Amino acid sequence: MNVQDDVPNNVVSSDFFETTIENESMDAPINFSCIENAIDLDSLHEGLINEEFFLEYLPIISLTDGRCTGAEALIRWRRPSGIVQPDNFIPIAENTPISGLMTYWLIETLAIEMRDWLLANPDADISINIPPEILGRGGLEYAARKAGIFDLVSQITLEITERGVPDLMGVNSINNMASLGVRLALDDVTLTSGANMAVLARCHFDVIKLDKSLVAQISSECPSPEWLEGITALLQSSRLVVVAEGIETEQQFMTIRTANIQLAQGFYFSKPITAVEFIDYHRENNAKIKPAAQ
User: Fold this and answer.
1) Exposed/middle/buried for 270, CB within 10 Å: 0-12, 13-18, 19+?
2) Fewest CB within 10 A of the end CB: N or C in the chain?
3) Which pLDDT score, from 0 to 100, does residue 142 have?
4) Which residues of 133-155 are buried (b: 16+ CB within 10 A; e: fewer)?
5) CB within 8 Å of 164: residues ≥ 6 apart
6) For the chain, how many structural domains are there in total?
7) What CATH number should be reported for the domain holding residue 37?
8) pLDDT band at 35 (very low <50, low <70, confident <90, very high)
9) According to the model, what pLDDT value does residue 203 have?
């Protein structure tokens, strides 16, 4: 999932700085026309030291039976003046040491908030986004061991974009993690070129996540976009699990389910929520699901 994938399509946004961005899952928005220059690597580092970052969780739903199978962990930043949207700080951190620090903080926080839940729900998993610049450096395994969740690696899905595997080091790192039992997801798949398939051929991915731009094409005017045929063929020829991101409408939900895509996430099901709220959501949602007939 990219940095804007948890923002509904009807919210006006931009690639970096928008005058005012609103999100019902967050606190009061910040006017970035006043403070955009204040967001830099120093302020990000200070935010980590001052414990201004927190996690929210976006539920992932099985389209087969409606169960909540887990969630994607999303990093948030609460400054004294309000919530900073991810697309206003993640691009600044990319390709810098701060990116690694934020990832290791996320792993540690995930362990604190969700370790007990993962132990109690061995069939569930949590997805986290991994920046490409830290692949192959050994820090992920160390962080997981130090945080006490390395024994739960089979319940952690690492989401990596195409640019995360540009070289042999990235490929080897991904394949080594797969050998340890970590689930790997290729994120932001658009199916618009052969790049996605080339990456899938080189690496042991278990999951692909369809970019929300594909789902956004599904409408009353275009109920069955051309890319659905490609997904159908992929599902028939592989064991990949496909997750559709950005589901917001009943029509998108029905189209995706009819296409036999296995999992989905988006505001149609839930906004991003805190760990406590997610645990309640998972329990209440799955309690409604009738057991499969024997």
Assistant:
1) buried
2) C
3) 78
4) bbbbeeebbebbeebebbebbeb
5) 130, 131, 132, 135, 170, 174
6) 1
7) 3.20.20.450
8) very low
9) 73
Cα–Cα distance, 203 to 185 (Å, whole number): 10
Q: How confident is the prediction for the chain on average, in pLDDT?
A: 83
**Is 27 domain-assigned?**
no
Residue 102 counted as domain residue: yes
Instruction: Report the alpha-carbon distance of residue 27 to residue 146 in Å, rounded.
Output: 32
What are 92's two structure tokens?
Answer: 């600044």
- Residue 31's beta-bridge partner residues? 20
99-124 pLDDT tens trace: 999 999 999 999 999 999 999 999 99
pLDDT, one tens digit per residue, over 114-158 is 999 999 999 999 999 988 777 766 678 778 888 888 889 889 998
What's the whole-number mean pLDDT along residues 20-47? 62
Secondary structure (H, E, C), the chain: CCCCCCCCCCCCCCCCCCCECCCCCCCCCCEHHHHHHHCCHHHHHHHHHCCCEEEEEEEEEECCCCCEEEEEEEEEEEECCEEECHHHCHHHHCCCHHHHHHHHHHHHHHHHHHHHHHHHCCCCEEEEECCHHHCCCCHHHHHHHHHCCHHHHHHEEEEECHHHCCCHHHHHHHHHHHHCCCEEEEEEECCCCCHHHHHHHHCCCCEEEECHHHHCCCCCCCCCCCHHHHHHHHHHHCCCEEEECCCCCHHHHHHHHHCCCCEECCCCCCCCECHHHHHHHHHHHHHCCCCCCC
Instruction: Say if 20 falls within a structural domain.
Output: no
pLDDT over 60 at 12, yes or no: no
Residue 24 lies in a domain: no
Q: Among 214, 236, 237, which Cα is nearest to 226's?
A: 214
Name the one residue in this structure whose structure tokens are 């995360």: 164
Sign of CA dihedral 265, 90, 78, 213: negative
